[in-house]
Design a protein that fits this description.
mainly alpha; about 60% helix; 2 helices
Length: about 25
């Protein structure tokens, strides 16, 4: 999964990551 590779290492990137994940559904 591409999303798994994009798992954020920084807490600051968590929000954009979640938004991107929601947009992918």
């Amino acid at each position: 999964n591409l999303l798994m590779k994009e798992v954020p290492s920084k807490p600051n990137n968590l929000l954009p990551f979640m938004l991107r994940l929601l947009n992918s559904w």
